[in-house]
Amino acid sequence: LSSQDTDSSIRQTDTDAALARFSAVQKGYLQDPYIKPFVPRSHLQPPRPPLINIGTFVRATAIDDLVFQWLQNSTNQGTRCQIVSLGAGSDTRFWRIATGAHKDALAAYVELDFPEITTKKAMAIRKSKELSAVLGSPADVAVAHGGTGLTSPTYHLIAADLRLPPADTLARLLAAEGSPILSPTLPTLLLFECVLVYMSPAASSAVLQWFRDYFAPARSAVLGSIVYEMFRLQDSFGRVMVENLKARQVSLPGAAPYPDAASLPGRFLNLGFTAAHALTLKEIRKSYIPPAELERISHLELVDELEELDLVLEHYAITWGLFVPPSVAGSAAAD
Ligand code: SAM
């Protein structure tokens, strides 16, 4: 297989993610008025099985909560912040934030993905009045990079292959001298929702390192990062997951270093991040989703594979890390 074929299989996972989200919305697990324009009519399928819907619900609820806390913190500290979603696919998070309680907290929201995906997304946004109205007045929104992207006062959609050296991609696209899209002095949150697993560990570390170095040590902003990923793929259930994806020409080089939950924070700690934590979706469902929500979703559809649910959920985790540059840590200590 050529690398083009395997890349197109990787891109295909975005359709799966969008359909899973759409299914969870249709079944009442999640609310998202913005997902429909990203699901082409030709791709519409019957809703996903209950296990997938519950997994999508747990993951989305947990990540929404972490992002909400990040935005809330920025608001409390009287500063605006930036969010960068890497491998954003058809994600609708920007629209949900920009029309929600923390809309004024966003100084910039950047989405990166392969050009085929960003071109498709740019077209879907321009076609939808609802989506484009959130970006600003038509005069404020411009097609960028030959139709592969969009720029607006807050939202930026940019084509990039995250496996390429960041000095040639991220530096050029996000940190151009004189007019950087990302300010090096604002708190910044990186979102990697189901993307690093498709890249080599070296390429993932290079991306994280580039952001870490952009904000420190001379700079002064806190960097947060959330990774959602499958892991523990060496056990018997994990091997079945790997085989299923292999049958679709998708390989998972990024999962190799993470055989268990204890290894996950190492992704950040090995790069000098200040703190990092990980929780599996199984733990999140049991201990962090409000009981009232669990009660509500238990009435949505009949689930007769509850044991299998735990098995699936313990192979997915959310890991988050915080990097506080020495200058900020130092001044906090002095205060
Ligand atoms: N983050 C979105 C979500 O959670 O709904 C989409 C997840 S989808 C499973 C994975 C996305 O990562 C796809 O849109 C794919 O094109 C993108 N991706 C994978 N490898 C990439 C790379 N090397 N550079 C840029 N994007 C990549």
Automatic annotation (TrEMBL):
Give the keywords, sorted. Answer: Methyltransferase, S-adenosyl-L-methionine, Transferase
Give, as one word, the top-level EC class.
transferase
Signal peptide limits = none
The residues that hold S-adenosyl-L-methionine are R59, G87, D161, L162, E193
Q: Which Gene3D superfamilies match?
A: Vaccinia Virus protein VP39 (3.40.50.150)
Q: Name one GO biological process term.
A: methylation
From the record, give the transmembrane residue ranges: none
Top-level taxon of origin:
Eukaryota
Q: Could you say which protein family the record assigns here?
A: Belongs to the methyltransferase superfamily. LCMT family.
Indicate what this protein is called per its UniProt record: Leucine carboxyl methyltransferase 1
